[in-house]
Amino acid sequence: MTLAEISERCHNITSSYLANSNGSAIVEATKEAIQITRQQFLQEVFTRWDPFGDRLSFSYNGGKDCQVLLILYLSCMWEYFVTNIRSSQYSSQYHQFPLQFLPTVYINQAETFGTLENSIESTRIRYFLSVYESPRNQTSMPEAFRNYLDVNSNTEAIIIGIRHTDPFGADLTCIQETDSGWPRFMRVQPLLHWKLANVWSLLLYSNEEICGLYEKGFTSIGGINSTVPNPSLSMKLELGHSTLKNEFEWEIMHAYGKKEASDEVCVSKLSASDERLLQNKGHLDYYPGWYMIDDSLERAGRSRS
Ligand code: FAD
Ligand code: MG
Ligand code: MG
């Protein structure tokens, strides 16, 4: 695989999703969400910052939101390449995909789950991410980005997988400057309008490997000492479970590239230490994270964000 090939694959995933006629309310809403993000990338972002230049970077922490946004970003990059470069009148020697690795930044903030670290590593390889990783827990987020910009001084804009339903996310816009107290650059936030259900719908349909903790009842992954599986997904809890069901059976059964319908979800393996941790804490019987589509409960397993 190359970055070009995985970008083309991501484009095929989104095109195939957009072409499906499943008709469910979640799928229809997700198609709309995809189209808005696509327009934002192609018409607002790539017209300001060439995705094949060195002024745009992607912030990545291995979570579901930035993974789904990465799939959309690569999909749009492929579309941009096909419409602007490959089909241009330049001779075919210039028709090569102009990028081999995607500039990415990961701020290692707190003690993280081994499973998440492994998942970041395997996605780094799968999506050809050139990851700048800040030293663990040395500084605040703004300081860590200041350090990033010191060594990547051409970066003008950073893509972020934040949504309106996240803390302090309500008033954000797709493109805006950082706040005071942060180093100056433009924040690019094309996932703001996505609801939890939209994220799961496309991610589960994509058949791309996702972090294994999600299958164990996690819905939002922070530090290892401040995150547990979402309590409202506990199988021991009878109360309220009448409303809990898998809304994504269709996405899973018909996931992209599956030869025949199956209910298997592509998740990464739990690390041995996380397996022990979940066992020791008795955190074993939880429904998968995608059984939770209530945005207001997404962070119920987080004691601090
Ligand atoms: P999450 O879902 O965990 O994160 C949302 C997205 O933020 C992720 O999809 C990913 O793209 C990015 N992200 C989160 N954690 C990391 C990490 N450790 N390493 C790399 N990327 C990460 N807040 C302000 O108040 N003012 C600002 O000007 C501001 N600028 C920011 C610029 C950047 C590039 C980033 C990444 C964050 C910025 N923030 C800023 C903080 C931001 O608004 C969120 O609070 C922060 O991303 C944490 O998100 P979350 O935990 O709520 O959700
Ligand atoms: Mg998130
Ligand atoms: Mg976070």
Automatic annotation (TrEMBL):
Per its UniProt entry, which superkingdom is the organism in?
Eukaryota
Reaction equations catalysed: FMN + ATP + H(+) = FAD + diphosphate
Q: In which pathway does it act?
A: Cofactor biosynthesis; FAD biosynthesis; FAD from FMN: step 1/1
Give the enzyme's main class according to its UniProt record, as a single word: transferase
Gene Ontology MF annotations: ATP binding; FMN adenylyltransferase activity
Keywords noted in UniProt: ATP-binding, FAD, Flavoprotein, FMN, Nucleotide-binding, Nucleotidyltransferase, Transferase
Provide the Phosphoadenosine phosphosulphate reductase domain boundaries.
Answer: 56-229
EC code(s) of this entry:
2.7.7.2
From the UniProt record, give one GO term of the biological process aspect.
FAD biosynthetic process
A Pfam family annotated for this chain is PAPS_reduct
* UniProt name for this protein: FAD synthase
Q: Which organism is it from?
A: Lachancea nothofagi CBS 11611
